[in-house]
Write a structure and sequence with these properties.
about 10% strand; 2 domains; disordered N terminus; alpha+beta; 5-stranded antiparallel beta sheet; globular; binds magnesium ion; 11 strands; single chain; binds adenosine monophosphate; two-stranded antiparallel ribbon
């Protein structure tokens, strides 16, 4: 892949140009002592950015938002959002900047965006900053999610600023550079709608159609087509999360994208013990964003998107509501199809689509989830243990699921002739396990990036079991205790 020299970094500012009401020109705060901590070189190459240039003082200037190429127009983006169910009409990028859009090697438009780059007019009481630990957390976990083939924003780099950030204690500060199909959120539409400016709402919808769901442009009702496309993309996304045991942790409407990419890695975590009621976030007291609630919560967020879009769906608002309800109603079937197709693959049954009845699969999956919920085994390990059982060794799954009904379930499943090789291609060995992430971030905060690099190596090839990575494939030791995550703001 060819890499462009620095002078050709071209950043467009299409969002700012088309939606100036939602963009405040801004720039990154100066950093006393910038130091590059991690860089995703493959992603840099995909973007046509030279990794050596990114390491240079000019490159770090770009990654901090203090020096931007000619013609760029960095902005803080406005958005609204329901946070834990309560509506805030003005959230916006309090500590983030959209540097601009660039074209990747495949000709796709990608946002280059910073987090932790200083206070903006949306900062309210916040300091506009971010600490090394949480920014590396987004780097590592989003890399793991990407390696699993799940749509996500991606982390390009984390640059330590040399500035202290004050949380419970003083922490080293950092800026994360991330790349996304866009940063349009359900909350972006809620913002536009709340202004009462229909022209703005329409321009935002047109921008979203053109960037993410161009098929909608030719639909009989393009704005309904947009909504249907977002419903489909989000149903597929949340099914992917459920299949790998990803708990987003803070599924507010401002953290639900129009593109269908995973966004905002704050208190997220991968499931260890299987339990639908699992909550890791320290602030999610009611369990609103528990693992098992995620499909319902995403659908709720999509209902908020529908409300924001109503004036565009039909002049007759009763008819607009009916159209929105019908389109939202498709979420359940979309989700079920994506989830059951994924479960069919996880159970090694994709090679027999014709003769395996949906009802048989549904009851097989339901009974397995009941077994898992009772035994609470490690989610990731359980599916690899099932592949071992398909190869004739039931010991690993028996150790994880010591339940009298396990063997009966295994007989039913094995009678369908599951393919263990195919299972190992979709059931990861390595995910960013909570204790490994914590261990790596603690070391990095103290100045040792070795464990972060090693963890990245493990999760970059999630399905290839490798010698030397044994401790990355097993659950946390008992003494790690119940896991809690924090928003990291
Ligand atoms: P998040 O929890 O990251 O989705 O952020 C929710 C809102 O709080 C967004 O408007 C953020 O920009 C804002 N925010 C979070 N942390 C900070 C901070 N340290 N300084 C300023 N704004 C922040
Ligand atoms: Mg957010």
């Amino acid at each position: 892949m060819s890499v462009a020299p620095s002078s050709t970094v071209v950043l467009d500012h299409r969002f700012a140009r088309e939606l100036p009401e939602m963009a405040i020109p801004w720039q990154g705060a100066a950093a006393p002592d910038p130091r590059l901590l991690v860089l995703d070189e493959q992603l840099a190459a995909e973007l046509g950015l030279d990794p050596d240039w990114l390491r240079s003082p000019d490159g770090l200037g770009l990654l901090l938002g203090t020096e931007v190429p000619e013609g760029a127009e960095p902005v803080a983006q406005a958005y609204a959002g329901h946070q834990f169910g309560g509506f805030s009409p003005r959230l916006g990028d309090g500590r983030a900047l959209l540097l601009g859009e660039l074209l990747d090697a495949d000709g796709r438009v990608r946002d280059l965006h910073l987090k932790g780059s200083g206070r903006t007019p949306f900062a309210r009481g916040g300091d506009g900053l971010a600490a090394v630990g949480p920014m590396l957390r987004e780097f590592v976990v989003s890399r793991g999610v990407h390696a699993l083939g799940i749509p996500t924003t991606r982390a390009l780099a984390v640059v330590a600023t040399g500035r202290e950030v004050h949380r419970e204690t003083a922490l080293p500060g950092a800026v994360l550079a991330r790349v996304a199909a866009s940063h349009l959120r359900v909350g972006s539409f809620q913002y536009a709608r709340a202004t009462g400016d229909l022209d703005l709402l329409r321009r935002l919808a047109d921008h979203a159609i053109s960037r993410h769901h161009p098929g909608a442009a030719t639909a009989a009702n393009p704005y309904l087509g947009l909504f249907e496309a977002v419903v489909a993309a989000q149903a597929s996304l949340v099914a992917r999360w459920m299949l790998v045991g990803f708990v987003h942790g803070v599924l507010n409407t401002d953290n639900t994208t129009i593109s269908g990419e995973t966004i905002d890695y704050g208190p997220c975590a991968f499931l260890d013990a299987f339990d639908p009621s699992t909550v890791y976030s320290s602030i999610d007291h009611g369990g609103r964003y528990a693992y098992g609630n995620q499909p319902a919560v995403v659908q709720w967020n999509l209902a908020r998107l529908a409300e924001a879009l109503l004036p565009l769906l039909d002049e007759d608002q009763e008819r607009a509501v009916a159209l929105a309800q019908q389109a939202l109603g498709a979420f359940g079937a979309r989700y079920d199809a994506a989830y059951s197709g994924g479960m069919r693959a996880k159970l090694g049954l994709s090679h027999r689509p014709g003769d395996l009845d949906d009802a048989v699969l549904t009851s097989l999956v339901g009974d397995l989830l009941d077994l898992l919920t009772r035994a609470r085994p490690d989610h990731t390990s359980s599916f690899r243990a099932l592949a071992a059982a398909a190869r004739g060794d039931r010991a690993p799954v028996r150790a994880l699921v010591p339940d009298a009904e396990l063997d009966g379930w295994l007989e039913r499943w094995l009678a369908l002739d599951p393919d263990p090789v195919a299972m190992d291609r979709v059931n990861p060995v390595y995910v960013p396990r909570n204790h490994l992430v914590e261990e790596a971030l603690t070391a990095a905060t103290a100045g040792d990036l070795g464990p972060v690099r090693r963890l990245l190596e493990a999760v970059d090839a999630p399905y290839d079991e490798r010698a030397g990575f044994e401790r990355y494939a097993v659950p946390a030791p008992e003494e790690f205790g119940p896991y809690r995550t924090f928003c990291g703001t």
